[in-house]
Every structure is written in C-alpha cells, then in structure tokens.
Model the fold of this input.
Amino acid sequence: MLKARELHQETKAVMKSWVALIGITVLIALSPINLRAETFTFAVADNTIDTVVSEVILKKAYRMLGHQIEILRLPAKRALENANAGIYDGDVQRIFNVAKSHTNLIRLEPPINYIHGTGFVNKGAKIDVRSWDDLKKYKVGIILGIRFAETNVPKQNAVIFHNYKKLTAAIASNGIDIGIYPESNGIYQTLFSNEENIVPLETPLAKFELYHYIHKKNHWLTNDLQRIFAEFAKNGTLMKVRQRVLEISFSRARKGLEPCFIDYACYQSVWDD
Done:
C-alpha cells in the first residue's frame, strides 16, 4: 500500500513538471517574439565530448522557441573570440567568469552543464595532485582557449596543445606528466584512442558549472531561454540528458565511433520518456 502511494505521488510530481514545461512552451509559442523564427550559429570548442551535452539541450530549447541552431566547431580560443566579436550568435557553453573578460557575451542562468577539471596520467605514475598548486612539480598539458585550465594551471608548468587528441598522445608518449581535461572528455578520449594505460587521478581538481552564452545582439532571447533552462533544471531534464548523452558517447567511443555531429540522430533517444 505504501509503495503504491509513493508511486502515485512520484507520478503526480512528474506530471506537474511536464505540465509546467508544456505551459511554458504554449506561452512562448503565443509570444510575438516567436514570430521571429531564425537559425542561430553557435561556436564551440572542437574535439571535446562535454559540449555535446549542451548541444543536445540547446537544440531542444531553441526548437521550443521555434528556432533552429547550427553548431560550428573551432579551436577553443578562436571559438570564444569569434563569439565575442559577434561573428557567431554566441558560444555553446563556457564557465562563469568568461563574461568578465568577454563583455559582448551574455551569460544565461541557470547553468546547463558542468565538468570536473581532472588530471590524467599514465597508469602507475607516482603523481600525487590534489590541488592546482600541486601541479608546480610537473609538466602539465592544457588546451589553448580552455579557460578553466589556462586560469588555474601555473603558467610556468603549462605546455600548450591545440586539441585533446594531441594532448592524449603526449601523455601516452611521456612527453608530459599530466594532462588536464574535463573528466568526461578525458574518459572519452582514452576510450576512443584505446589508451588503456591513461587514467584519471583519483581526486578531481575542481567542479565548474557551464553556462550558455549569447552575443548581446541576441539579448531578446534571454528571458525565454532562461525560463526553459530553469524548468529543465527543476524537473531533472538537465541531469537525465547529461547522463544519457555521455553513456551513448562512451559506447560509441569503445567502437571507434565519433559523436553523430551531423544530425545528432544517435542522441534522439535521450528525450524519450
């Protein structure tokens, strides 16, 4: 009897969340702003899997507003600079502090994703790192334009790479001691490259919330997008999508398959009930 009552209460809660989300969609559909259906182009750092979570979320959110989006993959630094310059409509995801240095970009709340900044090393390496300061003893690989790594890794220890494939190869060849990745991306890269000897350090260095940024020319999108993101956060959609996108991506990596960037068809099931 108790289980049945709990199941009934849980079902009611889920129904309320979906009713609220449907209500938001209806209100947006009736808004005069929705008459301006457009296709927006967003820059994103290439060769990283954590962005795919946000890409899947954004495609859904913009579609709810009657818009389409296109994703353009660029080296991380160029992606951010071009988004700030207004060449593109914004950046798929960046950490909180980006808005301070790139003032043409509007940070939308709440965050839609997160990463754990983590060091990856060769298995058996006698490396003990529990803080950014501990990195001063080692040669540390980072990606140009990945702000959390550029900001926190001691500059005198940093070795710059332009993509994660090259960073992974440098660890494998002992060219560096540690590579700094978003944890999910490090796992993906080692699976895809079949580098079983590269493993994450036990303790992540930090957690970073990730926000969608739009260029100020698109400021009129702010309220509607933030309303959708808030509902996605409230009803558990953000966490569900993140978990499923990573599961699918890791499964594909084990088979030597990249994410299905062209049509995102392999991720469609994340929206199934």
About this structure: Residues 50 and 184 are 6 Å apart (CA to CA).
